[in-house]
């Protein structure tokens, strides 16, 4: 018995949604929290930040070393041969004594007054704080990079599922139209229209597969392992209420807590201390010096003599003229300090723009996602209504293809809108300097474990 027109159309609709759910059966999906855990260990950019932070922590120890006691020891030994000419009974006589000289020294030096060293030590405190702020910014940047790449990969996966479903629907519709044409119930135009749509959909599948491969490779470069599948968005997607609720409060948070702003504030302090350090090069330096020396046959005049010298004293160094280098380095550091202030002002303006942008996106996402949800619902109803209309002879198969195309686009736009909301939420908190691990947990809750 030949299949009826209603049966053929039902098969076409059913096949449109088979591939949409075909990607949900993997048991090895990577969740967002797992991806973050792996990124902490394997992301080369973050590992670079770790070592940069460790290096920055040593600035204070290096500066403190210039103010602490300095103990140095030296030892030397030499084999000497000397020519000595002296008058004798028969005239001038030359002798060639050979001897070994030895010298050992132990010196203790302690700074009493060193304004340059003090300025360097104060500067080191700002350098350590700068390294801390920079590392905090890198930590938050890792969250943003990871979630952005994770979302890109997940969206590419969903996009591939959608275009596969679209391809299968068009292929099935092409087959249905061909059979209906052969049975005298359709037109050649319907067959050609379905074939054109099917060919275009196959090309879209190839492109989507490439996009999925590239996005997974980008994520793999962060987490350090191959990506097979990811957790999809949960069906129970609910937008959180922004806290705080006003833009002014978010701006205040950013001014107080943004890590990049903090880092540039410390950069200004560092340059100001650089000015003080360079100016201090004009100031005298006073050191306490204690030396213990022992010598054996140190010279021809002390041949075969041993000596021990103990000395304690104060050494004063007064810089008089250094070719103008101190004045030049001071002027240079003043210019660098002004540059640091300008950089700080530019960063504050940039962060304020980012806060305003992400705040607006987060707010507008509420209405946008709600509208897209309704669009998917209405597109789903449109597909069903079009199918019923075809049964009654009011619509044609091309109308069903167009309705399905609209549904696929609505689903894609809804997924993109939801991902956009999650990213704007994280980027807003990042710009405000309050992004932390609980925010990652919050975003991870929007994804359903496979």
Give keywords:
450 residues; alpha+beta; Outer membrane efflux proteins (OEP); 2 domains; 4-stranded antiparallel β-sheet; 6 strands; elongated
What does this protein structure show overall?
- Helices cover 65% and strands 14% of the residues.
- The protein is an alpha+beta fold and 450 residues long.
- It has 2 domains: 5-68 and 114-283 and 319-444, Outer membrane efflux proteins (OEP); 70-82 and 97-113 and 284-318, Outer membrane efflux proteins (OEP) (Single Sheet), CATH 2.20.200.
- The strands form 2 sheets. The chain has a 4-stranded antiparallel beta sheet, with no helix packed on it.
- Strand 2 and strand 3 (91-95) form a beta hairpin.
CATH class of the largest domain, anyone?
Answer: Mainly Alpha
Distance between the termini: 42 Å
Number of helices: 11
Overall helicity? 55-70%
CATH fold annotation of the largest domain: Outer membrane efflux proteins (OEP)
Low-confidence stretches: 1-27
The number of strands is: 6
């Amino acid at each position: 018995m030949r299949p009826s027109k209603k049966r053929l159309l039902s098969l076409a609709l059913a096949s449109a949604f088979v591939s949409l759910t075909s990607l949900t059966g993997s048991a090895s999906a990577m969740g967002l929290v797992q991806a973050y855990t792996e990124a902490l260990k394997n992301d080369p950019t973050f590992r670079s930040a770790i070592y940069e932070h460790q290096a920055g922590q040593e600035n204070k120890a290096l500066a403190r070393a210039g103010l602490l006691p300095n103990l140095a020891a030296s030892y030397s030994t030499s084999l000497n041969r000397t020519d000595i000419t002296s008058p004798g009974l028969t005239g001038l006589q030359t002798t060639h004594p050979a001897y070994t000289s030895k010298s050992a020294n132990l010196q203790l030096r302690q700074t009493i007054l060193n304004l340059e060293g003090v300025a360097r030590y104060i500067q080191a405190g700002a350098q350590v704080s700068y390294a801390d702020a920079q590392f905090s910014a890198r930590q938050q940047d890792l969250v943003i990079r990871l979630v952005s790449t994770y979302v890109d990969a997940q969206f590419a996966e969903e996009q591939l599922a959608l275009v596969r479903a679209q391809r299968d629907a068009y292929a099935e519709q092409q087959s249905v139209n061909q059979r209906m044409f052969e049975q005298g119930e359709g037109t050649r135009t319907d067959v050609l229209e379905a074939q054109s749509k099917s060919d275009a959909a196959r090309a879209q599948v190839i492109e989507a597969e490439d996009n999925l491969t590239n996005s997974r490779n980008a994520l793999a470069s962060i987490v350090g392992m191959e990506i097979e599948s990811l957790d999809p968005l949960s069906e129970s997607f609910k937008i959180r209420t922004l806290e705080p609720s006003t833009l002014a409060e978010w701006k205040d948070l950013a001014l107080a807590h943004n890590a990049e702003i903090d880092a540039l504030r410390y950069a200004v302090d560092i340059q100001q201390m650089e000015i003080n350090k360079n100016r201090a090069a004009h100031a005298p330096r006073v050191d306490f010096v204690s030396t213990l020396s022992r010598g054996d046959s140190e010279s021809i005049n002390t041949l075969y003599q041993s000596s021990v010298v103990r000395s304690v004293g104060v050494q004063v160094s007064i810089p008089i003229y250094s070719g103008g280098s101190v004045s030049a380095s001071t002027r240079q550091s003043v210019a660098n300090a002004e540059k640091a202030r300008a950089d700080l002002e530019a960063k504050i303006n940039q962060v304020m723009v980012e806060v305003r942008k992400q705040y607006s996106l987060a707010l507008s996402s509420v209405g946008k996602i709600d509208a897209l949800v309704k669009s998917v619902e209405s597109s789903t109803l449109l597909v069903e209504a079009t199918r019923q209309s075809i049964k009654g002879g009011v619509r044609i198969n091309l109308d069903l293809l167009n309705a399905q195309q609209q549904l696929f686009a609505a689903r894609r736009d809804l997924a993109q809108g939801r991902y956009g909301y999650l990213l704007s939420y994280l980027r807003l908190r990042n710009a405000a300097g309050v992004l932390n691990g609980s925010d990652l947990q919050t975003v991870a809750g929007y994804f359903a474990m496979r």
